[in-house]
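Q: what sequence does this backbone want?
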């Protein structure tokens, strides 16, 4: 249930609504908009909306039938903006994240970090724990990898995003990583999401391989419900009958999400297509469709990459793409730093 307060409702009136929500065994979540304060009452307890309509200062009570509430545009009309290392995702900002699929060695990650810093990138990606389909594929360097990417990122003033695979890894990630990424295969790992709801760092929530948009927003709701408002959604392609590309990049998800939710949505055209030559056109298409950011695999030497070389751009290709994105963004009222 969502309670919209009247324009100019007093602090005291708002406090009374919050107290009443608690009395009814629900958790209050407040969103201060430009004109109205909106309060979400989240929880399982059954309550009668009329009881809230009677409270002073209340303009309107909306019973939300969708199961996500805090992720909904009804709860918050303004776009959420997540900012990391000066890079903004959301509203009219397009944030960029780029780097290799995985951290392979000291030499590789330092070379990639140098390339990224020379390409206007402020956030580097790189997996240390890799969810590989085959147990015989390279599984990542683990903690050692996180230490290497931190050292490389610090040298070049970059922030880091990396994939966290299980609850026990969270403290380690908090020490080394700036944005925690939940991979497609873990989108519905609800225990992991609940723990990530308690941290004070942004989370990139990738769309599950066969997740509907509703399921994806419900997964985001888990993170928001526990108190972490810094959620970035990431469209990374879904499974369809089409096999010409690794996945089918669902760009319709951008306008659909923008209507349903205030959360920023970024696109991963690397996993979305699986092929380097498709990454540039789909990055431009994502931008034209209104995405709030891009996460792109770039490798200093893709032919020798231990993972996803075929979908990784050459640094020079990324720099060209950056120039094109800078030109395109203003056409859709967006800016790229
Ligand atoms: C990744 O970003 O390296 C990754 C494994 O992505 P996804 O979870 O989308 O497959
Ligand atoms: Mn990859």
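A:
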């Amino acid at each position: 249930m969502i309670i919209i307060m009247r324009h100019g409702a007093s602090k005291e009136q708002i406090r009374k609504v919050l107290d009443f929500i608690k009395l009814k065994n629900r958790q209050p979540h407040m969103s201060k908009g430009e004109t109205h304060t909106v309060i979400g009452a989240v929880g399982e307890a059954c309550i009668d909306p009329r009881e809230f309509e009677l409270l002073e200062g209340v303009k309107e009570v909306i019973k939300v039938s969708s199961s996500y509430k805090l992720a909904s545009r009804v709860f918050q009309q303004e776009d959420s903006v997540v900012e990391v290392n000066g890079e903004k995702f959301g509203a009219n900002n397009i944030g960029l994240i780029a780097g290799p699929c995985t951290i392979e060695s000291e030499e590789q990650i330092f070379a990639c970090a140098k390339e990224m810093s020379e390409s206007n990138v402020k956030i580097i990606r790189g997996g240390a724990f890799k969810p590989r389909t085959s147990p015989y594929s390279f599984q990542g360097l683990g903690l050692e990898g996180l230490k290497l990417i931190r050292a490389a990122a610090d040298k070049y003033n970059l922030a880091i995003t990396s994939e966290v695979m299980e609850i026990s890894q969270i403290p380690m990630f908090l020490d080394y990583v700036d944005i925690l990424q939940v991979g497609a295969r873990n989108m519905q790992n609800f225990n992991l999401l609940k723990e990530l709801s308690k941290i004070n760092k942004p989370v990139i929530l990738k769309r599950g391989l066969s997740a509907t948009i509703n399921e994806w927003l419900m997964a985001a709701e888990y993170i928001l419900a526990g108190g972490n408002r810094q959620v970035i959604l990431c469209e990374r392609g879904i499974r369809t009958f089409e096999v010409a590309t690794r996945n089918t990049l669902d760009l319709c998800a951008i306008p659909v999400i923008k209507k349903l939710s205030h959360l920023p949505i970024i696109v991963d055209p690397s996993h979305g297509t699986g092929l380097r030559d498709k990454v540039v056109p789909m990055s431009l298409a994502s931008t034209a469709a209104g995405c709030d950011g891009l996460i792109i695999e770039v490798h200093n030497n893709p032919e020798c990459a231990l993972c996803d070389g075929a979908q990784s751009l050459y640094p020079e290709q990324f720099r060209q793409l950056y120039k094109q994105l800078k030109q395109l963004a203003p056409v859709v009222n967006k800016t790229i730093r």
